[in-house]
Amino acid sequence: MDGPSGSGKSSVSRGVARALGLRYLDTGAMYRAMTWWMLRQGVDLADPAAVAARCGEPRIESGTDPDAPTIHVDGVDVAGPIREAAVTAAVSAVAAVPEVRVRLVALQREIAGTGDIVLEGRDIGTVVCPDATVKVYLTASAEARARRRSAEVAGSTVAAQQEAMARRDALDSTRKTDPLSMAAGAVELDTTALSLDEVIAEVLRLVAERRSSEGESEANELRSGRDHVRERT
Ligand SMILES: Nc1ncnc2c1ncn2[C@@H]1O[C@H](COP(=O)(O)OP(=O)(O)O)[C@@H](O)[C@H]1O
Ligand SMILES: Nc1ccn([C@H]2C[C@H](O)[C@@H](COP(=O)(O)OP(=O)(O)O)O2)c(=O)n1
C-alpha cells in the first residue's frame, strides 16, 4: 500500500490486515524511528554523510500485530515521540539518504519474509515488494488529506496542514528513485469521496479477485503439468 500522507494508508492497511488475518508493517514509522534516534544523538541532518555514517547503529524493532503495532529503538518504545512535529519536519531529509533506505528496505524485506503481511509506505510496490500479490496506490485530494490530518492534530488548521503536507510531498518526491511514484501493476484508488470502510472493502475485493485469478492460473499450470506427464508416458 503506497500513497502520500493522509491518503489513508495506515488505517486501510490495518483494516485489511485485520480482515484477512495478516500481519501489518508501517514502514514510515521505521523512517520516523531512525529520525528520532538521529535527532537524539545530535547528528547534523543537513549533512547526508553524517546521517549515512551513523544509520547502522540504532536497533529498530517493529511489532506487526495490526491491532497493536509497536515500534522500539534500542528497546525504547518510541510510538509517541516519532509522531512529534520535530520528527515530522526532519524525516524527509533522513529518508532521502540512500544508506538509510538500503538498511531499512533490508529490514522491511526481512520482516515481510515470504508474505502474509500488508506493508504500507511510499516505495513498497516499486522497491520493497515488487512481487506483491496486490499493489494499491491510495490517493485523495490535497484538501481531503489535510482535513483528515488536521482532525487528528489538536489546534491545527486545514490550510496549515495542507501547506506542510505539500512541502513534505515535494521533498519526498524529488529523489532519484521517486518514492511517491506508482508501481507497475498497482491499482490507483482515489479515496477522496469514500469512507474508510468503503476503501477497505474495495481493497478486499481486489485481493479476492487477484487470489481467484492466481488460483485459476495455478490450476491451469497443474492441469498442463498433468497433461505434460501424460504426453511423456
Ligand atoms: N477514506 C477515508 N475517509 C475519511 N477519513 C479517512 C479515510 N481514510 C483515512 N481516514 C482518516 O484520515 C486520517 C489519516 O489516515 P492515515 O491512515 O493515517 O493516512 P496515511 O497513513 O496515508 O498518512 C486518519 O485519521 C484516518 O482515520
Ligand atoms: N516506505 C517509506 C515510508 C515513508 N517514507 C518517508 C516519507 C515520509 O515523509 C516519512 C514518514 O512516513 P509516514 O508514512 O509516517 O508519514 P505520514 O503518515 O504520511 O505522515 O517517511 C519513505 O521515504 N519511504
Could you write a compact summary of the structure shown?
The chain is mainly α and 233 residues long. Helix content is 55%, strand content 11%.
Question: How would you characterize the overall build of this protein?
Answer:
With about 230 residues, the protein is mostly helical. The chain folds into 2 domains: about 1-20 and about 115-233, Rossmann fold (3-Layer(aba) Sandwich), CATH 3.40.50.300; about 25-115, Rossmann fold, CATH 3.40.50. The chain has helices spanning about 10-20, 25-40, 50-55, 85-95, 100-110, 125-130, 140-150, 160-170, 195-230; strands spanning about 25, 60-65, 70-75, 75, 115-120, 135-140, 185-190. Helix 1 (about 10-20) crosses helix 9 (about 195-230), helix 2 crosses helix 5 (about 100-110) and helix 7 packs across helix 8 (about 160-170). The relative contact order is 0.17. The model is unreliable at about 225-233 (pLDDT under 50). The protein binds adenosine-5'-diphosphate (ADP) and deoxycytidine diphosphate. Adenosine-5'-diphosphate binds near residues 9, 10 and 152.
Secondary-structure topology with pairs:
Blueprint: H1 9-20, E1 23-26, H2 27-41, H3 48-54, E2 60-63, E3 70-73, E4 76-77, H4 85-95, H5 98-112, E5 117-120, H6 124-128, E6 136-139, H7 142-152, H8 158-172, E7 187-190, H9 196-232
Helix pairs in contact: 1-9, 2-4, 2-5, 7-8
The structure holds adenosine-5'-diphosphate (ADP) and deoxycytidine diphosphate.
The site of adenosine-5'-diphosphate has 15 residues, from helix 1, helix 7 and helix 9.
